[in-house]
Amino acid sequence: GQILEYASVDAGWIRIHLEALELVHLARAVAAEHEGRVFARGTTLELVQSGPVFAIADAHAIRRVLSLLIDNSLAYARDGGRLRIEIQPERDAAVLIVRDIGIGFTEAEKNRLGEAFVSFARKRKTDGAGLGLAIATALVRRMGGALVVGGYHGLGARIEIRLRTAAGLSHSKN
Fold it and tell me: CB of 57 within 8 A of CB of 118?
């Protein structure tokens, strides 16, 4: 499973095909794939965007990263909670933000997120090997982007996928 996937990403064996992609459409498709789990947890999933947002990225990698982040949020979020995906253009980046109302991360944990085989003591529905965020981080880096972790311990997580914008395609707030 994820051990082989991480090894393949880390070794560069997974091909990344960069192209201009519209992120809202991709995020909607990934959110739809998770509707059953979201419903089963009594959680709501909200997608927020201000219009089309274009990034230089790989469609399969973006789908996988978003899926990993949603899975992680569902594993740690409170039943009946809320999961929110925001897609927004910035001057120099196209940004996808996944927010949840869950456990969140301490400052010390934030510094270790994205490292392989690092997991934190949590009560959750499933056991993991500490590879989901490592895979997500590696895929985003391979696309020339960054995964930025925020939020507060006890209040929820905020994870940004920051990608290069496809110049001239995204509308800009700035």
Answer: no
75 to 12, 38, 127: CA distances (angstroms): 28, 10, 9
Q: What pTM was computed for the model?
A: 0.81
Report the distance separating Cα 4 and Cα 1, nearest Å.
6
Q: Give the separation between CA 100 and CA 133, rounded to whole angstroms.
A: 15
96, 22 in Cβ contact below 8 A? no
pLDDT of 34-48, one tens digit each? Answer: 999 899 888 899 999
- Cβ neighbours, 10 Å, residue 118: 14
Distance CA 67, CA 33 (A): 9
Long-range CB contacts for residues 63-67, cutoff 8 Å, separation at least 24 = 63/26, 63/29, 63/30, 64/135, 64/136, 64/139, 65/135, 65/136, 65/139, 65/140, 65/147, 65/161, 66/26, 66/27, 66/30, 66/96, 66/98, 66/161, 67/30, 67/33, 67/34
Instruction: Summarize pLDDT for 116-164 with one digit per residue, the tens.
Output: 555 655 555 455 556 788 889 999 999 999 998 877 676 778 899 999 9
